[in-house]
Amino acid sequence: MVxxxxxxxxxxxxxxxxxxxxxxxxxxxxxxxxxxxEWGPIFHRGRLDGxxxxxxxxxxxxxxxTIVRRILVGEAGRRIQGFMAKLGITRSYTMINTFLYxxxxxxxxxxxxxxxLVSYRNLWLDALLLGKTVxxxxxxxxxxxxxxxxxxxxxxxxxxxxxFVKITHPTQPESFSKGNHAKLxxxxxxxxxxxxxxxxxxxxxxxxxxxxxxxVLYGDSFAQDEKSEIPEEDFPAGLPxxxxxxxGWARRVGKTTMDKRANITITVPKKNLPQ
Amino acid sequence: MVxxxxxxxxxxxxxxxxxxxxxxxxxxxxxxxxxxxEWGPIFHRGRLDGxxxxxxxxxxxxxxxTIVRRILVGEAGRRIQGFMAKLGITRSYTMINTFLYxxxxxxxxxxxxxxxLVSYRNLWLDALLLGKTVxxxxxxxxxxxxxxxxxxxxxxxxxxxxxFVKITHPTQPESFSKGNHAKLxxxxxxxxxxxxxxxxxxxxxxxxxxxxxxxVLYGDSFAQDEKSEIPEEDFPAGLPxxxxxxxGWARRVGKTTMDKRANITITVPKKNLPQ
Lengths: 275, 275
Hints:
Two copies of one chain form a homodimer. The first copy, chain A, has eleven helices and seven strands. By secondary structure, chain A is α/β, with parallel strands linked by helices. Strand 7 of chain A pairs antiparallel with strand 7 of chain B, so a sheet runs across the interface.
């Protein structure tokens, strides 16, 4: 009948995830002046069936994530997908974020250490790590690293003894260089050097990767095949392929700051429309 | 920790729905010149756990549905929600559409009767009706009625002997009157008279409604409480309340026809942003 079967991520079908997605911190905990709570929480990407070998801790969702309702589906997601692929991990991963909502401005230490914010996130870490098959944890950037340390300070966290690396956040070079091409080149080179250390630390810990893959380190910049499209198995049912193939299709547009905050504009790539 | 528990619809967690959402007709069956296949299929709204007492057959998704990934979540959805509420049905329903994709132009009879298009839809009707607790089926408009008749012509369809009504599509008055206020008033009055017939046909068949509700018919126009917000239990996890509270937050915007086709613009209602 149809040419292809389209896998999808069914999402939050069983416990404890059903409850975690029912009982979560909202604007009482996440200050609307510091977080884009208006879009609702975005919880995860990847496996929830206990098969993950890698756990990724990202920072916060942006506009692509807001539409797809899964985290790390934009450029940062494509880069981390490539990082995991170098470890032979193509599906056995789960990803959560430090924050359920997009950061708007700079959350203070007090906000970041809000007990309810932290304890809720720790429930996810407990659910994904205790007595599970995760062999390595990757924190993307400072906030994720801080989140990890907070969990590691708990009794549950102390019981977890597998590999951990903090690596530079995947889009730090872009944030840092603000359009300056020379700075971008330099920052990317520095990040990939850091990522190589991360790979070398983690690789020995991954006992049974999805794909046996000889470790090939990054060069000074991303090669084409070092960024992967987001797997169809990670997307909710029915979403179109072009939402995974590349990013840039969702933008915040508006004349004023308030207009921009209120907006997400989706544009279907031209090649995906009948000509 | 949190003030409220937020129910959600977990979606396509079990069979046959997992397979139905994996193996579905795409642009080989739905002509991209006649359907907005670029947004991917949108499958249903409501219960998939066999508890439905009413099945609603709608026509096709529009832009709000495209974002939410559930059908009938805009104005038409609010109106049909109110129709079911008059029968005492507040959660025991399932809804599917005649078409998986938004109609773009006018699909010919040949397209509408495409065997693969029809047989796929019939799988959903089989799954939702055979040996299940549905006591009444409501088809919204001509296309939905045609879809029903096609299923009723099958062996499975012939075995189904419960109540059926075709009612005017909920936004037919708006389509018909094209901004002419007098025509809108008249068409709405006519539709609600038709809906009253539908209610009177169905009400005796609903043996065990969610809420015992004396049947109160419509007047000449919609009263405030005759349109209901879409229940939180029908939405995927994490979507914000304002997406259910009202519609109008998603529009197709663009200078040319092609620009418009490529676009969905989401605007958060002002009251849901920090002032």
